[in-house]
Design goal:
Elements (H helix, E strand, L loop, with lengths): L2 H10 L6 E5 L2 H7 L7 E2 L2 E6 L6 H11 L3 E4 L18 E4 L10 H5 L3 E3 L6 H16 L5 H6 L4 H8 L8 E5 L3 H10 L5 E5 L5 H6 L3 E2 L3 H5 L4 E4 L13 H4 L6 E5 L8 H9 L3 E5 L19 E3 L11 H16 L10 H6 L2
Parallel strand pairs: 1-3, 1-4, 4-5, 5-6, 7-8, 7-10, 8-9, 10-11, 11-12, 12-13
Antiparallel strand pairs: 2-3
Length: 349
């Protein structure tokens, strides 16, 4: 179902909702909702605003003036002002994108605001990218350009690249949310030994995917041939992957991060790669965009990708369609899907 058809679904919805405000930049609107135009949707009035350049006071003034009952947001939406909650009519915030922490204070959810996001819709794209980085690192992709420019015989080339297979590897996954579970399904056909660790995840989740649950992060890292980082960033996980933790990995292990950069000691990663002890592949960094003077750019043994593990170009409209479906569901008096609970909020970035 495309966004224009979903707009018709809105028109059919019966609701007393007064005002749906879609807070997107023109770029986000074209990306997520191609062809969509605001208008009267059932009994709800729908408006589109771009407040990405607004001051905090301008944002607060807009909310007071428009008095939305539903907000549809993406990356550019500012944080909801805490002082506005007591006077607002807001009942539902529908995030087209993933993390809602930058936009929604915890107190809003505590006091009954419904909040949803894209849920597990893009988990497979991130997992696919992680698998790409694993295989590329194992096959020594960082050294391919030099091999093509300076042809060598096969034995010289193989000694230089030190290519390795995935099959049978001991694989650890830090984090066990939707991305990690998608990755498990992609890795199992390679007959790897899978372990995972994420504080607070119940044993039943590991059992469902037949993954060994580690009792600690140290146990997860100890002796792993491949370690995939996909844990969320919070006060508990920030800097959790230390130099000492990286030292527990097997020699010549592959370390892949598609989660959050600040979970890991970036300087330690650089040193491990320079020493030739680890193969490192990153899609996330402490600072983004990556500064041009970052030593990551010039360190042999590190494969960098430009934070593109998230939605692919063909999944952006799917995110928009899912958001519109959720709003239509809410307007009909139904519960939206992919609601963000307080537990999920606390575990997220």
């Amino acid at each position: 179902m495309n966004t224009l058809e979903l707009s018709e679904t809105w028109r059919a919805a019966k609701s007393s909702i007064d005002h749906v405000v879609v807070v997107l930049t023109p770029y986000e609107r074209d990306l997520f909702l191609p062809g969509w135009k605001p208008g009267q949707e059932g009994s709800a009035r729908v408006s589109h605003v771009d407040v990405s350049q607004s001051s905090r006071q301008g944002w607060l003034d807009m909310l007071r003036e428009m008095n939305p009952t539903v907000l549809v947001t993406a990356w550019s939406c500012p944080t909801l002002p805490l002082e506005w909650w007591g006077e607002s009519s807001l009942r539902y915030l529908c995030s087209i994108t993933g993390s809602v922490k930058p936009r929604v204070p915890r107190a809003f959810i505590e006091q009954g605001l419904l909040v949803s996001n894209w849920g597990s819709l893009i988990s497979h794209t991130v997992a696919e990218h992680a698998l790409l980085l694993i295989l590329a690192s194992l096959r020594g992709i960082q050294g391919w350009p030099a091999m093509m420019r300076e042809p060598r015989d096969m034995l010289q080339m193989m000694r230089h690249l030190k290519t390795r297979r995935l099959r049978g590897a001991r694989v650890g996954i830090h984090g066990f949310g939707a991305i990690a579970r998608e990755l498990v399904l992609m890795l199992k056909p390679h007959h790897v030994e899978l372990s995972a660790y994420s504080e607070g995840v119940p044993q039943a989740h590991y059992d469902e995917y037949s993954v060994r649950r580690c009792r600690s992060l140290e146990e997860l890292f100890a002796g792993a041939d491949i370690l995939i980082e996909c844990e969320g960033l919070n006060e508990r996980t920030k800097g959790a992957v230390t130099r000492e933790m990286l030292a527990l990995l097997a020699d010549d292990a592959v370390f892949v991060n598609v989660g959050r950069g600040r979970v890991v000691d970036e300087c330690a990663l650089i040193d491990c790669a320079r020493e030739g002890r680890l193969r490192v592949a990153l899609d996330v960094y402490h600072r983004e965009p990556l500064p041009m003077d970052s030593p990551l750019l010039d360190t042999p043994g590190i494969l960098l990708s430009p934070h593109v593990a998230g939605p692919t170009s063909d999944t952006y409209p799917l995110c928009g369609e899912q958001a519109l479906e959720n709003v239509a569901r809410f307007l009909r008096g139904e519960t939206p899907s992919h609601l963000v609970t307080l537990e999920a909020y606390d575990r997220s970035t």
